[in-house]
């Protein structure tokens, strides 16, 4: 009955006679729609608003969420749903998969490939890691639906046939093979094989369950955190584990849900196929070898595609071309990382006089250093005094030499708005309307609304998933988005040694927001020939020209006298500060300038009659105009001291950084290759001068040429800050492309 019911859901959406031309016709992906229909008791139970979220299925006291991947999206939903509802998360597993390819220009579909090896169920822990704190909640249930599917991809990537980095178009379920319900410790006990030794290492566990890949450490970590296993010592450098949870009786569990990996076991169930991948892969290899001898044969297409009318073909072509431009969410963990990093309070503070300026930055630095070691980076070094983190992704080129490429981001966030207790949430498929961040501002009592009326660029993100704040703090995308993107790139390259790249160096810095990010940066230890900072905003931003910058401090000494007897005696320091401001060009102000126009910006003024302190920053792209602005400040100070007496106004003026274009002109390959990397990712570069500065500007003048790349973040330094999920994925893709491009220069 179960499988018949699932077939009815397939028939409902695709027709009883499945036609491959029906792929991609739904607003939501086909796999998600069919699985949702299978679990929904009625149409009225679908897409139900529950509080601030929309549940896939809701009836009585139950909620069912269909999640194909990126379980980080579920975190805010589970936090909201579980206190009031029983929640079941359904995870469709592509247990057996056939690949089909779509030509982005013609819309033609190739005949499907031979099925790939069966899905190893231990891979689910990569996604479960994001929601591990909910796994043992009494109201939480996980259901794995093991399916046979056809996956359609658009050949819009790179490499031979455009298959590398290609975009997944749709997945069509063909048959439900099995349904596995997991609840509580007893449910996860099935992932501990009967013949697991009393003490074992991660590698021994991995080998026993025939898991290929480098993510198995996540499986062990999740099982450890939920109390299934525990550490019990070390063997050389490897941790030893032992079972912590003991089932009352394995016989009480259904045969088709207990994973038994012993060679003698013959349960005949679906899950045992995990252990037969090797045999099946050999058969597949033989088929591929046979097919390889037919190179002269033309590419096959299905009869359906070949007999379509001209109008239908045109429509399919347009759809395929449109899909080819969408974002491919290949490295989903970039969002997991970002949501974890923003929880660290790392605001810098220029008033402390220490380096780093705040202790919270050390906490994130230690976490990043540990994570780098866990993903397999080498030369991991955490500067415990000054809070810098360095690491290496080793070359995969063998004896060939390529330039050493660096990627740098900063860990601190601005102190303009609180960065403590950040509570991010994901607005799925943004509809172009107002987003209510908070019903009541703690200070004003008014609603906090992220609106396209105030921020019109929001309309560029319709249909995207946006990470926003709760309206009480900043988000921290500047620059934890960059940190997450670099870490995700590193993880990918370390797990894919077949990707050819040279030696890559990574660095995370403190105190960038207060202009001290490179103060103790060890360029010699870093050892890169060239680098990129990942600290921009909008997708496609490529910045290699910035302001020349200086900071100004004025200490003004007045003379306080009783107002009743002040004539000819009083000297009001605060009024002299206002007089200084009035002598600056009125429209050379950030409020009235754009592009390459410079300014004087009053950042702080405080004082009394006796004493006033004033801070400015000076910015200009043009070096001569920058020097003229500094001369004007000196001229006004001289005038005021002549007028009110020597020493009335004390001036301290220091240069912060200079326009990096001066140092990047001899290394324009950095710009050309960044454009190429973006083009490979389907992104058009946006090359405007930075109306600000980055660590890259200072590093360029210290001898490390270093332009700046996008992150996908917007509205930095305030509670209206947000980041685009899709743009963050694309940024990771750009970074990976750069690694390969410089590897080709070996």
TrEMBL record:
All residue ranges annotated as the DUF8091 domain in the record: 29-183
GO aspect biological process, one term: peptide catabolic process
Listed Polar residues bias regions: 257-276
InterPro entries, A to Z: ArgE/DapE_CS, Bact_exopeptidase_dim_dom, DUF8091, Peptidase_M20, Peptidase_M20_dimer, Peptidase_M20B
EC main group: hydrolase
Cofactor: Zn(2+)
Positions annotated to bind Zn(2+) 2: 478, 513, 717
Compartment(s) of residence: Cytoplasm
Alphabetized Pfam families for the sequence: DUF8091 (PF26351), M20_dimer (PF07687), Peptidase_M20 (PF01546)
Taxonomic superkingdom: Bacteria
The name this protein goes by in its record: Peptidase T
Gene this chain is encoded by: pepT
